[in-house]
Amino acid sequence: MAIANILTVIDTAKIITDKSSQIPDSSFESPIGLGSGETYVYMVADSRFTLSGAGEGTSELTIKLHSEDIIRWRFAAFDNGQSLSPIVVQFENYYTGGYADPAEYLNPDPPGYNEDSINIYVSPSVDDLDGSPVKQPLQDRYFETKIKKAPEADVKICYQWKFKLVDQNGLLRGYYDWDPFIIVAA
User: Fold this and answer.
1) pTM attached to this predicted model
2) What tens digit of pLDDT does each residue of 86-118 get?
3) Which of 22, 155, 176, 185 has a CA-to-CA distance to 54 between 20 and 30 Å?
4) How many angstroms separate the CA atoms of 172 and 17, rounded?
């Protein structure tokens, strides 16, 4: 069993620039659609799980997984939330024409939300970058699912995210959705 960590980076500034007129009308029930997400969302994974040149840093991702392997999705903004923080509020797999049935390959379906308390280490200060590292607690939040069975041929698994953007004052800057897919390679 291996753990494939997928980091999903959201271009929050571009979303706000392009979608600002739609923000007042957005809600959890009626989010602003990002279409294929090509200019707003980028996924990367550990090179052990990606195929040479396949989907690294794009809005769709091709990964090679085996039975019992785990996928963990984490989310961040390009500026690490200094202006806007993306908060995923719903993550659903869905079965639609041309895609594999997620329930056949993933467990749980939809992925479960997890939170772990971890420590990261940072420089003691901007004036002492080479000093002894300082421990900083962090709440690690991610969605997780396990591969039930490896496919016999490449399969596309489609899912949908709903997320909200919140500014540094805690003010809601809209709800959004996006329906990417991953290709689980045989």
Assistant:
1) 0.84
2) 998 988 877 677 788 888 888 876 678 888 899
3) 176
4) 15
